[in-house]
Design a protein that fits this description.
The complex is a heterodimer of chains A (about 110) and B (about 110).
Chain A: E1 3-5, E2 10-14, E3 19-21, E4 24-26, E5 32-38, E6 44-50, E7 56-58, E8 64-68, E9 73-78, E10 87-94, E11 103-104, E12 108-113
Parallel strand pairs in A: 2-12
Antiparallel strand pairs in A: 1-4, 3-9, 5-6, 5-10, 7-8, 8-9, 10-11, 10-12
Chain B: E1 4-7, E2 10-13, E3 18-25, E4 31-37, E5 44-50, E6 53-57, E7 64-70, E8 73-79, E9 87-94, E10 103-104, E11 108-112
Parallel strand pairs in B: 2-11
Antiparallel strand pairs in B: 1-3, 3-8, 4-5, 4-9, 5-6, 7-8, 9-10, 9-11
The chains are: A mainly beta (about 110), B mainly beta (about 110).
Amino acid sequence: AQSVTQPDIHITVSEGASLELRCNYSYGATPYLFWYVQSPGQGLQLLLKYFSGDTLVQGIKGFEAEFKRSQSSFNLRKPSVHWSDAAEYFCAVAPRGATNKLIFGTGTLLAVQP
Amino acid sequence: ETGVTQTPRHLVMGMTNKKSLKCEQHLGHNAMYWYKQSAKKPLELMFVYNFKEQTENNSVPSRFSPECPNSSHLFLHLHTLQPEDSALYLCASSQGREANEQFFGPGTRLTVL
């Protein structure tokens, strides 16, 4: 069965430090890959997506993610975290040809220390 | 109003009540979705509508009844719910089905007593 694993439920980083959020997926073929962010009381906002091509994807708010086929991973990174980045982050996959069938991970809650 | 709006933002209901959640998208999209977000569980896709036609029902209990009168509006009618149905219900929309971003509303926080 298709699944998305975000092994870190909760992460705390200091402001200005670098960040990496992990995402692994289990899928028969390379799916479309997404990262979403959810701030308290808000809906989900797309940070970035990977469909094909360059495996390093740039997104909004200074985030990037790298697709590694051999590891079935799509980790999210940011070189310097800001206090406003505190939120919950969700990795999601969708089968090629049906991006309306998003499968989400359980999320990683990011706290930022001053 | 811009983006995807949902009303009400909070709802408390008893198990015998009937209530409805409303979603409206102002983006000109033709696909709309209902998701359920429970604590410590992944978001669960409930229903998908394309051009007002339901194209996905992810084994959702019949006590949840969706309605999509046009491409801009989506409702979720609730009746005889259970306490385990308490969750955040998110609406989303997108343009078509292929390779397009889903835009999410802020959600309705539902509590079933």
